[in-house]
Fold each of these.
Amino acid sequence: MSVASHPHTPVVVAGARPALWSLAMTAVVAGLGLAVIVVNTLVGYLTVGLSQAVPICLGLAGCFTVAVALRLLHRAWWLAVLSVVPALFVLVGSVQLAPEAVLQQRGVAQQVTITDVQTSGKRHEFALRGDSGPLDEPLVYRGSAPGYRVGQQLTVLTDPQGQVELADAEKVDVGGKRSMLVLGAVGWTLFALLAGWRGHVRRARGRQAMAPLSI
């Protein structure tokens, strides 16, 4: 007696997504990172002469958005947490590039001597004297270890239009800030590729976003 054969029924893994969908979402997250870099750098240029709070706040929001996007793509937090490293490069580079570029392009170099210092918390204001007399603008350092002392001679760059605050010429590094943006972009792109691949594998295995073993 023959036994009727039944057609094989494929097993559909819960939560699986087509590879094309995962690839598209990976491209979206990578593009989001690049968009954050471009937009925040542009805002930095548009707000030269104003408070840096605008690009700083916008940059923080953008970096947080990228981290959340990586979390959703990867379905785990550890890559999102590690993305803080390239985010720091992006934030510092996009905020400081514009004012340093302005000083490099139109700044006037002056040899000065530090004559006095006023400290308020972590804000240090160093009074300067040039060849033609005291400068109206101090050298401002925000931090706990400024590395400057009274009597020290150094070269500073001043903005003739008064939009960008005076800065130590040795600390103005436009090329370095651009390199930071490139490193940030490369880092975010690599994280997006890794998150997309691992997320695709997780979804193919039917893992849920809030699985107990997710970290």
Amino acid sequence: MSNENYHHENLKADLIRNGLKLLDEEGYENFSLRKVAKACSVSHTAPYRHFDSKDDLILAIAIEAHLKFNQRLEEAVNKHPKDNKSQLKEMGYAYVKFFVENPEYLRLFFLSDFANNLKKMNHETLLNGEQPFNTFYQAIERCQAEIQSGEGESVDPNAMALSCWGLVHGMAILIAKKDFSYDGDYLELVRKVLWGGTFLDL
């Protein structure tokens, strides 16, 4: 079996995996299908079997990242099927853990020169119910409804969403970029903040 035939069996997956690494290292302007092909040890024309352009490949990278991220959030929800507050806490922990373990996704989604382009892409996979923000916001709405029905208080779901997201996003960036110096287990510290602090005390 030739080297290229071997790679072709999983070429699309290889292009996405190596493309993410290359995009993270070189940025959008220096990213090219030719460079990704070289990283995959295939001819420079091989990527065009699956992708029309570098933007097409980057979109595929973003879609895969969104699906993986959303899966982590749904797993967090499923750990506490009858406890809405615990769902949000577990999702917050999963959020930080995902981006600390995959800082290249954090940079792609929020910190890269391509991040703004991703927000403008009207791709159905990025807009439908599998989008991570939808999973998060649905949990916010469930928690908000429970608080209002139980205590009669008026809770703005957008304020709750901003508070929850802002906290975990800030922790993810500080830890992933190593801006917060700590000798212990970062993720255990995150769990302590989410379960032992004032999180969700609205």
Amino acid sequence: MVDQLKHLLETAQRSHVRLQILPFSKGAHAAMDGAFTLLETGNRDRMLYTERPGSGQVTSDADEVAKCDQRMSALIGLALSPEESIDQLAARIGET
């Protein structure tokens, strides 16, 4: 697992990557019912990919995309900052 954490630290240094950790200590949150990914195409069309046990689905329904965009904002607000996240990973693998 140390190698995986080191890889995350290296990846977090890239200019197009923003890594944030959402600690278990924050309790229940807006993504506990399943994973989702917000997607944006080159021409600014927005889509949503959701995963549930045994299936995945893509939708471009504006209401669904907006709901998950709000969920993502809430998650970002709960998560550690990118700097705090990097510090926590580094401490976890003993690189502080």
Amino acid sequence: MIYGIGTDLCDIRRIAASMARRGDRFAEKVLGPNEILVFRARRARVEARGLSYLATRFSAKEAFSKAIGLGMHMPMTWRACEILNAPSGKPEIRLHGALADWFTERGLKAHVTVTDEQDYASSFVVVEALDPSKELRP
């Protein structure tokens, strides 16, 4: 059963402007510990690849926050939600701390897809209730 759906479109040029103003602090605010490692590696190879990675993660976290119905309110935080790639390349959502507990208590499972082009990154998230009898709304 579908619990929630979220989508987001992010202008990569705005992410670049934020990085120019705030430097790495912006990426460190948005990205979790595993994501920041991937971001730094991609940016070291090609600056634009790092920015695209940051934008897709920003977009996916926005979409996830919409799908769970919390927006950016506790326990949803930028760093508690990571979008990491499985060995196959498929993006997956990994949650930490209070957000992971909140999500598990409700018996939820999330599916995410991300895409980007030169100027835009987009994401789509579907959250399903595995056991509707456990479903607790925010």
